[in-house]
Amino acid sequence: MIERQITTTLTNLLDTDAAVTLIGPHGVGKSRLALTLAQERPTIYLDLGSEADRAKLIELELYLERHGDKLVILDEVHRLPNLFHHLHDYFERRRRIGREPGRFLLLSPTSIGPLQQFGGLLADRFACLELQPIDGLEVPEKLINTLWARGGFPASLLAESDQSSHRWRQEFIRTYLERDIPYFAPRISIETLRRFWKMLAHQQSSLLNAAEFARALGVDGKTVAHHLDLLVDLLLVRRLEPWQSNIGKRLVKSPRIYVRDSGILHALLGLTTQEDVLGHPIAGASWEGFVIETLLAAVPFGTKVNFYRTSAGAEIDLLITPAGQRPWAIDITRSLAPKLEKGFYLACEDMDPERRLVVYSGNTVFPLSQNVHAMPLAAAAELLRDLA
To answer: Do the beta carbons of residue 334 and residue 287 sit within 8 Å?
Structure first.
């Protein structure tokens, strides 16, 4: 089993916060991680997808009082939205009599809805962490290309064959469309969303053109926006916002869109093996999204992430701005011999970044011109992780 980097942070938060929420798509390993931590302390685990476990919380306060000295893990919490109101009242009653509220670990595929409101009510006693698919810092370097092709969902990455991995991802897509998404958006057209998700895959790393999507789908712009918001909230799609500032340049205002997990991207496009991916026009954009997800998994809390692009052609694939610091400018390429376009240098003149990096698919670090360094993905991610 692959050890997840988030484990230490999650353990520390469980020692200090009344409630910690672990969010991430189904199949990413939330329940497995929670049950692993449960072996280290007294724990009660309830799966709220089970009617029997939901029934145990009908008398919530009586049940929790019997387990006040244990970590309470509540899985699939989105299936019992009234729970958050009752939990908040339980916490407040214990505060008034000077007693600790206990420790709770809540597992959910999304932070939207009642869970978000619950976090606002608890304020400083509530923490939220995202468990992403396995990233490039969590596997040996020799497995990076396998991770890129299959994606970071454990069942897909660790499958016996490329065909088995591809079947799992196809089933993941089907299950989300037929079971999970209707739960969060019961009025949505599943067939329209299916087409939209595939269209996003074909447009990986492109600027969002909502009008073009609307015409292709035969819907209005509000429907496209709603579909996109849903996929973003479910942590399946990333909306990378452009850098916006008053620097006297005409800046692009549309976000870039990425299917977050490269394996799901490839499954949406019908690509089974790494050779299939390398022979497809999406290969460069797929690698870009894969690199972005790994780098963002490494950055410190509070870091801003954007891309930079002007109408004149100055462009930076990824701007990472740690709190209180100047941004890092990062270009991304699949080439083994990276060559920077003039637009990157022009953008760096505009931004004056702290660091200038090119992440490429080779395995050595070497300098390029104008204070730019080319480096493999793992080396760039380690630099960013060291900032924390």
So the answer is: yes
Comparing C-alpha atoms, which of 103, 116, 110 is closest to residue 130? Answer: 110
pLDDT score recorded for residue 158: 95
Report the candidate in 295, 109, 271, 297 with the shortest Cα–Cα distance to residue 198: 271
Those residues with Cβ within 8 angstroms of residue 140's Cβ, 6 or more apart along the chain or in another chain: none
Nearest to 266 by CA among 152, 105, 362, 106: 152
Instruction: Give the 3-state secondary structure of residue 194.
Output: helix
Task: Domains for the chain: give ranges and CATH numbers.
Answer: 6-130 (3.40.50.300), 141-386 (1.10.10.10)
The residue to which tokens 């970044």 are assigned: 353
69, 125, 293 from 239: Cα distances, Å: 41, 29, 12
Cβ-in-10-Å burial (0-12, 13-18, 19+) of 126 comes to buried
What is the distance between the alpha carbons of residues 324 and 326, in angstroms, rounded to a whole number? Answer: 7
In the chain (388 residues long), the average pLDDT of successive 10-residue segments reads 88 86 94 91 90 88 81 89 78 72 82 59 71 93 94 97 98 94 88 96 96 95 95 96 80 95 98 96 97 94 93 93 93 92 92 94 92 94 88
Cβ within 8 Å of residue 35, ≥6 positions away: 45, 73
How would you label 298-334 residue by residue, b for 16+ Cβ within 10 Å and e otherwise? bbeeebebbbbbbeeebbbbbbbbbeeeebbbbbbbb
Using CA atoms, how far apart are residues 357 and 330, in angstroms rounded to an integer?
Answer: 5
Alpha helices in the chain (DSSP H): 6-16, 30-38, 51-55, 60-66, 83-96, 114-122, 144-150, 154-157, 162-175, 181-184, 190-202, 210-217, 221-233, 262-268, 274-278, 283-298, 342-351, 377-386
User: How many other β-carbons are positioned within 10 Å of the β-carbon of residue 372?
Assistant: 18
**CA 233, CA 113: separation in Å to the nearest integer?**
10
What is the four-CA torsion angle of 162, 165, 167, 172, rounded to 10 degrees?
-150
Largest CA distance in the chain: 67
pTM passes above 0.90: yes
Other CB atoms within a 10 A radius of the CB of residue 9 amount to: 15
